[in-house]
Amino acid sequence: MFFKIIDFSKFSSIKVGVPIEVLMLERGDDIPNDRMIVGHANNLLVSSTPPPLMMLSKDFSFIEFEDEVLTVGCATPTGKLLSFAKKNGLAGFEFFSKLPGSIGGMLAMNAGVKSYEIFNILDAIKIDGVWVKKENIEYGYRFSKLGGVATEVRFNVTRGFSKALLDELVNLRSNQPKTASAGSAFKNPEGDYAGRLIEEVGLKGVSKGAMQWSEVHANFLVNHGGGTFEEARYLLDLVKEKVFEKFGIKLVEEVQVL
Ligand SMILES: Cc1cc2nc3c(=O)[nH]c(=O)nc-3n(C[C@H](O)[C@H](O)[C@H](O)COP(=O)(O)OP(=O)(O)OC[C@H]3O[C@@H](n4cnc5c(N)ncnc54)[C@H](O)[C@@H]3O)c2cc1C
To answer: At 81, is the secondary structure helix, strand, or coil?
Structure first.
């Protein structure tokens, strides 16, 4: 293991944060239990005082396909696995398209699009060095309880990559803002949409400094350049307060605030 300074204002997809010392894990290392694991920071809002952080090094970026068993390292970017699935005609990975992140981050968030989510194609995850079958992991809409660091994953392989599904899912994304963001800021509450609620309380398009509730998609908190953690936190709290006042609904952040 080794330390690396990561500037989250450059590394994170929302471009907020400061340079932070992060412990990089290599193959064979014991995994510390007093640090938080981060992936490729597409779902993170990092303050200037996050808990101690660690990350998987490139040792964990690999794809092995032997005897119909697909094993993937958790630092592998989604795009790389999507290309592999396309090339080898494997089904179930189409929704990875334009869904930025590492496989570890995808598993921790049970990331997905509509009814397509990563747990659908999951067989087992190696967590803190032990293989755990999907049946023994608690998961649901945009969450899973891994209880440790995912380093490798095995997928259920079925043949037949669908170009039509890929195109459909890519199309869905045409209404998403191109400005820096961490994807959806809040989870959709049962039977409703966070974006609709944000619009209803009149906060769509509202900004604080360089941070703004996107005019394109209300549930995207976007950074026009140089936005700060404090500005982002202010806008998240403002939405929670106004939505609770008007609808009695407690919105829960999908973006992980560190
Ligand atoms: C433009 C845009 C669009 C997006 N669209 C979607 C979407 O449609 N659907 C969707 O679900 N998400 C979406 N996201 C969010 C993001 O792509 C996913 O949450 C992705 O899975 C994050 O992966 P990451 O590697 O960046 O994880 P990070 O953001 O770094 O971390 C996310 C969480 O995963 C945990 N984690 C990371 N690696 C590991 C590991 N190895 N072991 C255990 N825990 C780990 C972290 O502790 C953290 O809690 C979008 C993001 C952006 C920027």
So the answer is: helix
The predicted pLDDT at position 108 comes to 96
Widest CA span in the chain: 56
Q: 6 CB less than 6 Å from ligand 1? A: no
62-121 tens-digit pLDDT: 999 998 889 999 999 999 999 999 999 999 999 999 899 999 999 999 999 888 999 999
Atom index in ligand 1 nearest the CA of residue 106 equals 21
Full DSSP string of 117-139: EGGGGEEEEEETTEEEEGGGS-E
CA distance 162 to 36: 36
Nearest CA to ligand 1 atom 12: 111
pLDDT tens digits, residue range 164-200? 888 888 888 887 888 999 999 999 999 999 999 999 9
| Residue 142 is a catalytic residue | yes
Ligand 1 centroid–CA 8 distance in Å is 15
- Does ligand 1 lie within 6 Å of residue 25's CB atom? no
Q: Is 67 exposed, middle or buried (0-12, 13-18, 19+ CB in 10 A)?
A: exposed
> Cα(221)–Cα(206) distance, rounded to whole angstroms?
10
d(CA 115, CA 95): 10
